[in-house]
Design brief:
Chain A is α+β, with helices and mostly antiparallel strands. In chain A, 22% of the residues lie in helices and 35% in strands. In chain A, the strands form four sheets. A six-stranded mixed beta sheet of chain A has the order 6-7-8-3-9-10, sandwiched between helices. Chain B is mostly helical. In chain B, 68% of the residues lie in helices and 1% in strands. Classes of the chains: A alpha+beta (369), B mainly alpha (422). Bound molecules: adenosine-5'-diphosphate and magnesium ion.
């Protein structure tokens, strides 16, 4: 993937490992590169080691093994206050005893920047996040969203080499969170600053990032652009974690060049793309996005065509969400576009469903399911 | 201009005015709330408010003179103490009659004791008069009384009686500030240096309490910081060690300091053993101010640590991290960001320790010697030994006012709401 860009890497983790207790590796052999100006997101469930990676980059945790490189030099032995890395914390970490202005001035004061310049840069940073009039307030006198913006402004005001954000929107309500996602993305594009962002919210990651590193259990499962991650998940974990996903488990019965045949639970044979399978006879899981399934197709148009029983219909305006029993799995979700001819669908009805072989990806079988 | 909507009276469904119905509902819940706190309220009133009110009264109360010498007090009203003339016959007659009555009730020594606080000699004067008055049965009383003791012929005696004939007196407060009133012209002046003790004691109490507060802060701050930093599992255990002193008797703690600090004590022995001092140079570390400061710093330390700890516990780790990531050296991050956020704990701990310290008396009494006792020891002395409750109360009231003043000052500067007591 990014290996051929190695010369361009601005931030680079090389074979980094981390353990807190000497027994469990929280981060296992991490290799991750970010380019200058990139918005890279680390996405993964809670406890997967994202924060640990961020803290190692910021210098608050030391890597047990491996090397971290920033802008061409190893920073393993650089203390955190000399790394010039801005950081936005989940609880904002605004200093409550200082005003907003003083909070923003803090990184400039410790850098011994002249007073007049500090004032100017603080004012600019406040304008940048549209909070120009709030400079003399205390953080406690601001709303959650405003505090969040101040925290972002403070992490940017000293023009750091890179900005780290650890679930910065986690404490905000949904609407505000979405608005802030766009604002941060806009700032990123305007300032061309490198951002490493951590979240467990996949839609947030998809909205904001240039590339996403999906973490699980201290390992990067896949590193790719949002659309690639969604369209072409490389393993079952990623397929499950990103977006909605139907899984059909079975055994590989034959493999061609581009397609493989999978025998699923009830004996049906399905065509799928072989992505991550161990060969004929191995267990696999077919991953299929709900919106790629067509209800009652003209027969013969799709290589995969099976009968299904409608269990549940939920009307969602622009589409109808239907739960069906397909090949013995009764949690098979289909998103049916809202058009006139679907009026006759009722729970209990039997229908045909079909999909392309390219939309069905045969992946590794997760042990947990 | 904002238009206020016209007030319309609202009614509930069955026609009762809404306000009335609300008041009814609230009255019930108020009653319940009141009943629940009433035991505590009663306790507070009888164990706290009443004694304080009593103390306030005692510190100005002078009704004893009027009670024991009622006739004298009435008749001496018409005598002018600046006249340089003794009161007339009527006053002496009243005095003789009063003393006779008091003698019967065995109260004549009490009035003597009371007036003796103001001017020494009165105790013996009244004791003697008690013995002599039964022989004085007819006028002229003036002559007879003066004959029984020539002090009755001293105009100064009568001036003191006149001065303290009213039901209330500020005399105890004057005494508490080492002041005295001249009985001839009523002017107030301070006692000579060698007789003044209270001001010196007040000053020493405040000075030593400040020292103790400062020491507990210096020792308690790093300790609390460490407690707040280690994992909760460990800090819970360490907190027990902080609280351990609470579970041993104050006397035990104090006397163990005596064992450590006395001239033949452990520390002196050790210092001689390692050769830092020699046998003649044993340090006097107890029965003086040093002893008081050392023992009380130890005893009051938990009162500093607990509020500090509880405040530090709530300061998120991310504050210091944020400061460091913004480029501040860890020391600067600590000083500029962490430390100011501990202010509520420092304030609460300091005020708590200081207030406890200025009211302490057991420890200074045991280890303070003559240079390490506090004003409270003086209160205890007046309450239990000299039985001058008025003066004891006056000192107590002054101490109370001082503490209240301190609180108000603190509120003004830091804000009481910012105080965290654990
Ligand atoms: N300071 C620490 N000491 C010991 N274990 C830790 C510490 N911080 C995190 N961990 C452990 O490391 C793992 C990864 O944690 P973290 O990096 O915070 O994950 P995430 O941010 O993805 O939720 C978790 O199992 C967590 O319990
Ligand atoms: Mg985390």
């Amino acid at each position: 993937m990014a290996n051929n860009h190695k010369s361009e890497a601005y931030v680079s983790f090389q074979n980094v490992q981390k353990t807190y207790d000497g027994e469990i590796l929280v981060v296992k052999d991490l290799n991750l590169d970010a380019e200058r100006g990139e918005f890279l997101t680390m996405l993964g469930p809670s406890g997967s080691g994202k924060t640990t990676v961020l803290l190692m980059l910021a210098g608050f945790e030391t890597a047990t093994h491996g090397e971290i490189i920033l802008d061409g030099t190893s920073i393993n032995n650089v203390p955190p206050h000399k790394r010039h890395i801005g950081m936005v914390f989940q609880n904002y970490a605004l200093f409550p005893h200082l005003t907003v202005n003083e909070n923003l001035a803090f990184p400039l004061q410790v850098r011994k920047i002249p007073k007049s310049e500090i004032e100017e840069r603080v004012a600019n940073a406040l304008d940048m996040v549209q909070l120009g009039e709030f400079g003399s307030r205390r953080p406690m006198q601001l709303s959650g969203g405003q505090q969040q913006r101040i925290a972002v402004a403070r992490a940017l005001v000293f023009e750091p080499k890179i900005v780290l954000m650890d679930e910065p929107l986690g404490a905000l309500d949904k609407q505000l969170r979405e608005q802030m996602q766009y604002e941060i993305k806009e700032l990123h594009e305007k300032l061309e600053v490198t951002i490493v962002y951590v979240t467990h919210d996949q839609s947030e990651a998809l909205t904001m990032s240039n590339r996403i590193a999906v973490f699980d259990d201290g390992v990067i499962q896949q590193l790719a652009a949002p659309n690639v991650l969604y369209e072409e998940p490389e393993n079952a974990f990623v397929a499950q974690f990103i977006g909605e996903n139907n899984t059909l488990s079975g055994q590989v019965s034959s493999i061609d060049k581009d397609t493989c045949t999978v025998k699923v639970g009830d004996g049906e044979s399905l065509q799928a793309l072989p992505i991550k399978i161990d060969g004929v006879g191995s267990n696999t899981m077919i991953s299929l996005r709900p919106e790629r399934v067509v209800v009652n197709p003209e027969s013969g148009t799709y290589p995969n065509e099976v009968s299904a029983e409608i269990k549940e219909l939920i009307y969602l305006g622009d589409h109808i969400r239907s739960r069906m029993n397909v090949c013995g799995h009764d949690d098979f979700i289909v998103k049916i576009p809202n058009s006139a001819n679907h009026a006759q669908l009722k729970p209990g009805n039997s229908v045909k469903v079909g999909w392309m072989a390219e939309d069905a990806r045969a992946l590794d079988a997760l042990e947990t399911t | 201009m904002i238009k206020t909507p016209e007030k319309i009276e609202l009614f509930t469904a069955d026609g009762v005015p809404l306000k009335l119905s609300l008041a009814r509902v609230q009255r019930r819940s108020k009653m319940v709330a009141f009943l629940m706190v009433s035991p505590l309220l009663l306790f507070m009133v009888f164990a706290f408010l009443v004694p304080i009110a009593d103390m306030l009264l005692l510190s100005v109360d002078n009704s004893i003179v009027e009670r024991i010498l009622p006739k004298t007090v009435k008749s001496i009203k018409y005598w002018d103490p600046h006249d340089d003339k003794l009161p007339d016959e009527a006053v002496f007659a009243a005095m003789v009659e009063d003393i006779k009555k008091a003698k019967k009730a065995r109260e004549h020594t009490k009035i003597g004791t009371r007036l003796n606080y103001e001017s020494s000699g009165f105790a013996s004067l009244f004791r003697k008069a008690g013995r002599k008055v039964k022989k004085i049965n007819e006028p002229p009383y003036k002559k007879a009384l003066i004959k029984s003791d020539k002090r009755w012929g001293d105009i100064q005696t009568w001036r003191v009686i006149k001065q303290f004939s009213s039901g209330y007196t500020g005399g105890y407060y004057l005494a508490a500030f080492d002041l005295k009133r001249d009985f001839a012209d009523g002017s107030v002046s301070s006692l000579p240096e060698e007789d003044s003790i209270y001001l010196k004691l007040f000053l020493r109490t405040i000075l030593l309490s400040t020292t103790i507060t400062f020491l507990t802060l210096i020792i308690g701050f790093p300790l609390s910081y460490m407690l707040a930093k280690v994992p909760t599992r460990i800090s819970n255990i360490l907190i027990i060690f902080v609280l351990l002193p609470f579970w041993t008797s104050l006397l035990v703690r104090t006397t163990s300091w005596i064992a450590l600090l006395q001239q033949e004590g452990v520390i002196n022995d050790f210092l001689i053993l390692v050769g830092i001092i020699n046998e003649d140079g044993r340090l006097a570390m107890i029965h003086n101010a040093t002893g008081t400061v050392v023992a009380m710093t130890h005893i009051l330390l938990p009162f500093m640590i607990l509020p500090l700890f509880s405040v530090m516990k709530t300061i998120p780790k991310s504050y210091v991290r944020a400061a460091i990531s913004l480029g501040a050296h860890p020391w600067i991050a600590f000083w500029k960001i962490y430390f100011p956020n501990t202010a509520p704990g420092i304030g609460a701990g300091s005020i708590l320790v200081f207030i406890l310290a200025i009211g302490y008396y057991i420890t200074p009494a045991l280890v303070g010697g003559s240079s390490g006792t506090f004003i409270s020891n003086r209160i205890a002395y007046h309450m239990s030994s000299s039985l001058n409750w008025g003066l004891g109360s006056a000192i107590g009231v002054i101490l109370l006012l001082f503490v209240v003043l301190l609180f108000l000052l603190y509120d003004k500067i830091v804000g009481i709401n910012n105080m965290k007591l654990g």
